[in-house]
Every structure is written in structure tokens, then in C-alpha cells.
């Protein structure tokens, strides 16, 4: 019995470590998307995300002022 | 459960969406009349000045005011979702040893810290200005300063947390006073940054009301966020306890840290 238990435990540990790594990779990707979203909404003036021109900035204009982000 | 980060991410998104919507609707009702007034005052100022043509340029009518009103709510929801993600990850890292413990109290404490870090402390250093304030020539500098004040405040919250952890053997009053003094020191540190270079040519009452409403919107966001995040945490803890065969309330009760 104990001969079988030991490898099983090891496999579980490896699997959970892999799951953990995968979950933290997903979390890191989500963090990057979140930072880009915050940049787009509060900082971009059409210089970095060039395709948006001033549209993004003007659409988010009131939110920027209200939440204290510097605006033109 | 080996990694609680994904369930926490889900909670962060749900709480962030709800909080952003609440803050967006609150500011739509409470602050938009002020912003409309500020924009009309700015247009009047521009019309009277000699270089009116250039001054009025930066409120080019890309969108109607009603579209910008909707934009405020959309902006708030996007910001809420994004902040929810970052909040969940920070929460998972800070509480990685005991991720399930005390979901309600921790959510409230963490939300209060987030409010201080991204809203109150930066807002005291660089208070929000209504439309019509802000020189487009200085916007890059002002963004850098604003970001710096947020970075200082976020690092300051980590410092306050470490102070609390290091003093965990001391009586609660010593610990709490030390944490408050740390937060005050962090606020003082943000004042080492140079001030906002722009003139604020608006009515003082309007300015005060706008700034109060700006902080109130942040407070609505983080208040709703903490309540939803904590409530979902309580529910998850109850489910875990039920699944493990225990009574729902046993998982929630853990010694305070």
C-alpha cells in the first residue's frame, strides 16, 4: 500500500505545482491587460495607441476629470 | 485548493464591475451637472479672450456631451474591472499563506488600503480638476507626477502592511498608531513631488464641490468593491465548508492576524 501511495503523492504535488504555475501565468496576463486598459482609459492621448487618435481620450474625458487623472 | 488566485480573480472582476457601475452612475447623477457647468464657463472664458480660437480648440466636438456622459459610466466600469484584477492579484499575494481566512474583514481592510493608495493620497496631493482646467502643454508632466504619487502611495501601503506585520506581537493600539503614522509619512512623502503647474481659473465653490464629488466617487467605488468582494469571499468559504462536511459558519471563524 505504502509503495503505491508515495508515487501518487508525488504526482499530485507535481500536478498542483503545474496548475499553480498555469494559474499565476493567467493572473499575470490578466494584470497586463488590466494595466493596458487603465493606461488607455486614463492616460492615452492618441500618441501610444495611435489608431484611436483623440477618440479614446474624448470618450473617457469626463471619467478622467472625475477620477483625478490629468487631462489636457 | 492549491491556487486560490483564479477564484480571487473572478471575485475581483465581479466586484470591480459592480463597483465601477455604482461609481459611474453615482458620478453621472452627482457630478455631471458640475462638469457641464464647468465646460460652459470655459467656453464663456474662451469666447471673451482674444486668442479664443486656440483656447477653445481642445474641446473640439468629437463627441456630444451626452456621449461623454455615457463615456463616464463606461470608463468607470472598465476602470473597476481593471482595478479588480490588480486588487485580486495583490490580495492573493499578500494573503498567500491563508488565502481563505477572514474574507469579509480582509476585503474591507484591503479595499480601504486601495482607496488610500489610488484615490485619497494621490487626490490630496494632486486634487481632481473640473473640465476647463489643464494646459495641454503640461499634461505629460502632470501625468508623470500623478503616476508617481500613486506609486508612492501603493508602496506606502505595502510599507504600512509590513509595519503591522512586524509589530504583530505588540498591543493593538501600538500597531494601529504605527500604521496611521506610516500612512501620514507616506502622504508627506508625496508632497516632496513638485506641485501641479497649472492655473485653476474656475469658481472656488464649483472647484470644491467637484473635488469632494471626485473623492466621493472613488469612495463609492471602493466601498461597493469591498462589500461585494468580501461577500463573495464569505459565500465561497461557506461553500467550501459545506463541501467539506462542516457547518458553513466554521470556515469563516479564524483568529485575526
UniProtKB/TrEMBL annotation, chain A:
Domain of life (superkingdom): Bacteria
Sorted UniProt keywords: Membrane, Transmembrane, Transmembrane helix
InterPro entries reported in the protein's UniProt record: CbtB_put (IPR012667)
Ranges that cross the membrane: 24-42
Protein name, per record: CbtB-domain containing protein
UniProtKB/TrEMBL annotation, chain B:
Superkingdom to which the source organism belongs: Bacteria
Entry keyword set: Membrane, Transmembrane, Transmembrane helix
Membrane-spanning residues: 12-31, 70-94, 106-124, 144-165, 177-195, 215-234
UniProt-listed Pfam families: CbtA (PF09490)
Name this polypeptide is given: CbtA family protein
Originating species: Streptomyces himalayensis subsp. himalayensis
Lineage: Bacteria, Bacillati, Actinomycetota, Actinomycetes, Kitasatosporales
